[in-house]
Design goal:
The complex is a heterodimer of chains A (340) and B (196). Chain A has 340 residues and is an alpha+beta fold. In chain A, 31% of the residues lie in helices and 29% in strands. Chain A is elongated, with a radius of gyration of 26 Å. Chain A starts with a strand and ends in a 15-residue tail after the last strand. Chain B has one domain: Beta Polymerase, domain 2 (2-Layer Sandwich), CATH 3.30.460. Classes of the chains: A alpha+beta (340), B alpha+beta (196).
């Protein structure tokens, strides 16, 4: 796709300031090293923005979103004034901790489709070294804006209709799992007025359902042990943004077990979709663990308590014979019928 | 495509709300061609309301959850917000507090990504569906009123308007009283889930 125009704005922090600093902006010429670099950013935006996001409704639940409105206004009339409106809204949510940043707005078109990439390069400091014939000069530079910095952020939207497309897009934020919630919220929620396209509960539900099906349908003991092991660790992911694949890689789950879990996703490509993990949702699906023994015994307990309720010891490893033991007073005893 | 999506979406909603108390029914329908055409041709002040109806009409897929009591509508609204991404969530009520008429909770939601595959491609499909949450009485009134088939341009007599409003008030009153009783007495016998 052709990259038609680029505007850039230097944004000083302005959150909670009655008179935030002025925002200076410029058009970027369509030639030279900077253009070439930004063209690569524009072309690769979908790959470098892993999170599917959607604009949120307004506080009254109506189909109105200020950031989306500002982006569409910029697309309809692509000039510094409309770009500065977006820059001002970013400034209004930028704190001193987020610091100085350089905002780029890149717009492209192909036939009837329009694409916009919004990216923020954070300010950093560095050293400029210049080698002359017989000498080296070094200089300290305060305002360098680096794309590969840990706090680079971007978002990309595309569509054909300004009025009815552009409700969803993709966002990239390497700080998304920051322990500081205001950093994690800054780009997607505070500036873009958006949220993940798949809500956390739904993403967690989808993942938990696939894990449960893989566990219940697998006949491989190793797979079941692997699943049991990582499930104990999942509550520690509360609030973290990750995909099913990312979660399983994090816990070094084997490729074979990962494939079994992936096969239970209704749409396998969603195995790679990020969502915000909600442990309470997981608990609904994996609430109880039942172990069936070859002697006909059935042991059931709450999943998060199973290992405390039943102590397990290996009796004969060559025959995979184990012994479970437990103690307590009898609270209830009942018959259950067979499901037909 | 819409029929395939409707079937999948209904199954998905039933899975998501499985175990949720006091749901009478969950249904999803694809808008019929006739109804779509009628809506697409709507005019306002002599001008077509929709210039790109295939994209603009957001209720080509319509879902409905019917529940028992008014407080259940709020409870289910919270659940919907957890599992679906919305661009609209509004309570539809009559224009004036002294009027009685249609009521219901309406959402415009993104179709969950699980619904798409090679048969129904995400990039080539509609993005949204409409979800309504209503009580049994709100649903009964709106179904009966809709079946009368009068159009917005139909001029009802004063007596007809009053009688329609009266039935809406009766439905509203029944909802109020049942909700109060539910909160006072509880639903010890009614924790079953009936999903038609």
């Amino acid at each position: 796709m052709e990259l038609d125009s680029i505007h850039s704005f230097l944004i000083h922090p302005g959150k909670h300031l009655e008179e935030p600093p002025e925002i200076s902006g410029t058009s970027v010429a369509k030639l030279g090293g900077l253009y070439d670099m930004l063209k690569r950013v524009f072309d690769r935006a979908e790959e470098e923005c892993p999170h599917d996001v959607a604009f949120s409704a307004d506080s009254e639940g109506k189909q109105h979103n200020e950031c989306r409105t500002a982006i569409l206004a910029y697309l309809k009339k692509t000039d510094l004034a409309h770009g500065r409106a977006l820059a001002k809204s970013l400034q209004a949510v930028t704190t001193n901790k987020s610091g100085l940043g350089l905002l780029f707005l890149m717009k492209g078109t192909r036939k009837d489709e329009t694409k916009i990439v919004v990216s923020r390069f954070p300010a950093d400091s560095g050293i400029f070294a210049q080698e002359m014939e017989k000498e080296l000069t070094v200089e300290f530079l305060e305002r360098i804006f680096m794309k590969n910095a840990a706090s680079y952020k971007a978002a990309v939207y595309s569509g054909k209709s300004y009025d009815h497309d552009f409700w969803k897009g993709k966002a990239g934020d390497k700080q998304i799992n920051s322990a500081e919630s205001y950093i994690a919220s800054y780009w997607i929620r505070d500036f873009l007025h958006s949220d993940f396209l798949t809500p956390g509960e739904e993403g967690t539900r989808r993942f938990a359902s696939a894990v449960r099906e893989a566990m219940n349908h697998s006949t491989d003991t190793k797979t079941k042990e692997e699943i049991t092991a990582f499930c104990h660790l999942l509550p520690g992911l509360k609030g973290k943004v990750a995909s099913a694949k990312g979660i399983l890689n994090r816990f070094h789950v084997s490729a074979a077990t990962q494939q079994q879990i992936k096969s239970w996703f209704r749409r396998e490509s969603l195995f790679d979709e990020g969502f915000q993990f909600v442990p309470d949702e997981l608990a609904k699906f994996l609430a109880f663990t039942t172990v069936e023994l070859s002697n006909g015994g059935l042991l059931t307990a709450a999943t998060n308590n199973f290992d405390k309720v039943f102590a397990k010891e290996t009796v004969d490893p060559s025959k995979e014979i184990v012994r479970f033991s437990t103690e307590g007073s009898i609270v209830d005893q009942r018959f259950k019928k067979v499901k037909t | 495509m819409l029929l395939v999506l409707a079937t999948r979406l209904e199954a998905h909603l039933r899975t998501v709300f499985d175990g949720c108390a006091r749901i009478d029914r969950i249904s999803v329908r694809a808008k019929s061609v006739d109804r779509f055409a009628a809506k697409a041709e709507k005019e306002i002040d002599g001008k077509r309301k929709y210039d790109d109806p295939l994209t603009q009409i957001q209720d080509q897929l319509g879902a409905r959850i019917v529940t028992f009591y008014k407080s259940d509508v709020d409870r289910l609204t919270t659940e919907v917000m957890k599992y679906f991404r919305h661009i609209e969530s509004v309570q539809i009520v009559p224009d004036s507090e002294s009027e009685f008429g249609y009521e219901g909770r309406h959402f415009i939601l993104f179709i969950p990504r699980d619904m798409f595959d090679d048969e129904v491609k995400e990039d080539e499909s509609i993005q949204f569906f409409e979800l309504q949450i209503k009580t049994l009485f709100q649903h009964a009134w709106s179904e009966a009123e809709h079946d009368l088939g009068y159009k917005p341009t139909t001029i009802l007599t004063s007596a007809q308007k009053k009688r329609l409003a009266f039935t809406a008030a009766q439905a509203w009153g029944a909802d109020q009283i049942f909700d109060e009783l539910f909160r006072e007495i509880g639903s010890t016998g009614a924790e079953h889930q009936v999903m038609g």
